[in-house]
Input
Amino acid sequence: MTDPFSLFDSWFAEARASEINDSNAMTIATADAAGQPSARMVLLKGHGPDGFVFYTNQQSRKAKDISENPKAAILFHWKSLRRQIRIEGLLSTVSEVKADAYFATRSRDSQLGAWASDQSRPLDNRASFEARFAEMAERFEGKDIPRPPHWSGYCLAPERFEFWQDRAHRLHERRTFVRNNNDWTEGLLYP
Output
């Protein structure tokens, strides 16, 4: 049996070598308390045995969904490799120390954007957002930019993996790993 994290690492390394743009791009699907699903693209910013980490504004729709229903699914699709990986599990907030450390690595403009954006809220026009960005640039001119209190990261702790490999004539290979306490049960699915 293969460890799903090792298999992910192997496939991810190949994707980083072959994908031209954003090999770490993943779809995250959440659902609100009423079960209404929503999916969007985010960037994987860390992973390991504890899970898969991304960062966002905690006032966004996805963060609201997560607060109401922490179950989520992520999907990596690497067209150049003809592969995808689906991962399902529970989301939790990363520590403030981890969020601060990651925020400090972002470009200055990305840091300013985190302060300027009311993510997922209505925007009257682009000029309003650009004006807020300029205000933040002035506010923090010559200073380090701290992480906004409404901005952090989430870690998806996997409960299920599916590794999908395209095969000729749609005879695809689907390999699954399901968490059973601290062990993983491996299996195959018909395509």
Observations:
- The chain is about 30% helix and 40% strand.
